[in-house]
Design a protein that fits this description.
single chain; 2 domains; 1 helix; 181 residues; elongated; alpha+beta; four-stranded antiparallel sheet; Lipocalin
């Protein structure tokens, strides 16, 4: 009985192969024709994008028509180049400590008698210390003898310096330093 089943089994197997082959032969010309026609027809891989309706086949589906271009937005206000803030600290004579702070476009120098005492601050951007650069972005402090020296670096790479007494009497203006490059 095994040999009697074999011809029927062969027939089913041959029919299955013939159907698969037929589907493959039919699908190849359809895909080839769609590829020759171009993606604007969108028939490749079963997507049906219509020609002339503004939609295009992108490989992952059809896209809709492109919308109108809108007006440009308003230009933002002019201002400093980013949120520049900085702090630097140096030891002074005895147990004193000096700090320079750059915050919200202003420079300050401060002193305190001990590391835990409150600071006494002086604003270095006031009229008594003219020449402070508007685009300061970094600050440093150094103590040398009876003076405290503060330097700022601008966003353009310029360096300016000022100094005060260790008692924070600041009456000198800002002076440009020659660029390091």
């Amino acid at each position: 009985m095994g040999s009697a089943m074999e011809p029927g089994r062969r027939a089913r197997l041959a029919a299955g192969v013939a159907v698969a082959l037929l589907c493959g032969l039919v699908a190849v010309p359809v895909r080839a024709a769609a590829a020759e026609a171009g993606p604007e027809y969108g028939y490749a891989y079963g997507y049906g994008c219509g020609k002339g309706d503004g939609r295009a086949f992108t490989g992952g589906g059809c896209t809709g028509p492109r919308g109108p271009k809108g007006p440009k937005g308003d230009r933002g206000p002019a201002g400093p180049h980013g949120p520049c803030a900085d702090v630097d600290t140096a030891s002074g004579p005895g147990a004193s400590e000096f700090s320079a702070v750059l915050s919200r476009g202003r420079a300050y120098v401060g002193a305190r008698a001990t590391p835990t005492a409150p600071y006494h601050w002086q604003d270095l951007t006031r009229a008594r210390t003219p020449g402070f650069p508007r685009d300061a972005c970094g600050v440093s402090v150094r103590v040398g003898g009876p003076r405290v020296y503060v330097k700022v670096l601008t966003t353009g790479g310029d360096i300016y310096e000022n100094s005060c007494t260790t008692a924070l009497v600041c009456t000198l203006g800002w002076t440009a330093v020659v660029r390091p490059y």
